[in-house]
Specification:
This protein is an alpha+beta fold. 51% of the residues lie in helices and 11% in strands. The protein has 14 helices and 9 strands. The strands form 3 sheets. The protein has a 4-stranded antiparallel beta sheet with strand order 1-2-3-4, covered by helices on one side. Strands 5-6-9 form a 3-stranded antiparallel beta sheet, with no helix packed on it. A two-stranded antiparallel sheet has the order 7-8. It is elongated and about 85 Å long. The N terminus is likely disordered.
Length: 375
């Protein structure tokens, strides 16, 4: 190879194939080779690499594909992730990110490729929320690649995301809630539905609730666990999703009464099955003391809704129903936030802003009535 160097340019030379190349030492004896069609192009790349080296941002990682890097990245972080979070990341890597971008060399991934990937997912019917979540996973991985000096820039920072959309909630009003509980009388999930409407607890929090978490005399309940079914892992119990989700809830009297009746019912069931009962102290269990089956729960819930003459709704909408009923009764949003276990008041205000708007109209009408009488 015929080498030509300009003063201060470093190692720049012309290859036998006619291309120009330059080399720069990156770590110890390791060297990085830069290529270009002209000496000027290679010279510019060399100057940029020297500048990155001085700033500590020169890409020094081995050449690897996006697939290889993401798989390694997820396994490294697995130990500090909740099982549910790991399963979600793994599912989106396997189903979306790796099939679309996995073949690309990590250091050659571009913002345009990520933008096209996000747009394609939207066209294929994924919700904006899901696309944003997938983007968040990739963004976190590339941020870590910069920290580990595998990349100089995060191409995700130049990507435009779809506007976030919120699922339209379908809460029950006070009268509908009464109809639901009336229709649930005698159902195996009567107490479960009563607790959901009376406290706004999440389903996973309800299904993992223990009798030891409840003080019926003090009308107090502690939210300490949550449980979910995770594909590939089965039933997984863990701590609540956030620190604020670990909370104490004061129970209304009608919920306490329902729990007392349910305790007597469960005691009879326990005596009936005898040694087949596996005591896990669960408040809501199947007939043998184990976790209540979610599919059976949803089947029974649909049946109660039908008997009550109510439209189809998600179980999670009972949580929204509890919140909107509390707000419509004039309960301060801060109190509702604490009952629901939201980490920020803004979350409560964003989800239930429509209820607060109605409350504002009522408040202003009352203000008008008061001063109208005086003036």
């Amino acid at each position: 190879m015929s080498k030509r160097r300009g003063k201060g340019e470093g190692s720049i030379y012309r290859r036998k194939d006619g291309r120009w190349a330059a080399e720069i030492t990156i770590e110890g004896r390791d060297r990085k080779t830069l290529y270009g069609k002209t000496r000027e192009e290679v010279h510019e790349k060399l100057l940029a690499a020297q500048n990155e080296k001085r700033q500590g941002s020169l890409r020094t990682g081995p050449r690897q594909t996006v697939k290889d890097y993401l798989n390694d990245w997820l396994e490294v972080h697995r130990v500090r992730l909740k099982i549910s979070t790991y399963a979600t990341y793994r599912r989106h890597l396997n189903n979306h990110i790796i099939p679309a971008l996995g073949h690309i060399q990590l250091q050659k991934l571009t913002a345009d490729q990520v933008q096209t990937f996000c747009s394609k997912m939207l066209k294929e019917g994924l919700s904006p929320g899901t696309v944003r979540l997938i983007y968040t996973i990739l963004n976190a991985a590339l941020r870590d690649a910069i920290r580990r000096k595998k990349l100089a820039i995060n191409v995700c920072s130049a990507v435009t995301l779809p506007r976030a959309t919120r699922h339209k909630i379908q809460p029950l009003d006070r009268e509908q809630a009464r109809r639901l509980l009336k229709a649930a009388k005698g159902s195996p999930i009567e107490c479960l539905l009563t607790l959901a409407l009376g406290t706004g607890m999440r389903l996973g929090e309800i299904l993992s609730l223990r009798w030891g978490d409840i003080n019926l005399e003090e009308r107090m309940l502690q939210v300490c666990h949550t449980v979910d079914y995770i594909q590939g892992f089965g039933i997984v119990e863990s701590e609540p999703k956030t620190e604020s989700s670990r909370r104490s809830i004061i129970l209304p009297p009608f919920v306490v009464d329902a729990l007392k009746r349910h305790y007597d019912y469960q005691l009879r069931e326990r005596q009936r099955v005898g040694i087949a009962w596996k005591d896990q102290d669960l408040v809501f269990s199947n007939r043998y003391g184990r976790y209540f089956d979610r599919m059976r729960l949803h089947t029974l819930f649909k049946r109660v809704l039908k008997n009550a003459g109510l439209p189809h709704m998600r179980f999670h909408d009972l949580r929204h129903s509890a919140a909107t009923i509390l707000l419509s009764m004039g309960v301060p949003a801060k109190v509702v936030q604490e009952v629901l276990g939201h980490s920020k008041i803004n979350t409560t205000l964003d989800i239930y802003g429509h209820v607060l708007s109605d409350m504002q109209r009522d408040a202003m009408d009352k203000m008008g009535d008061f001063f109208g009488e005086e003036l």
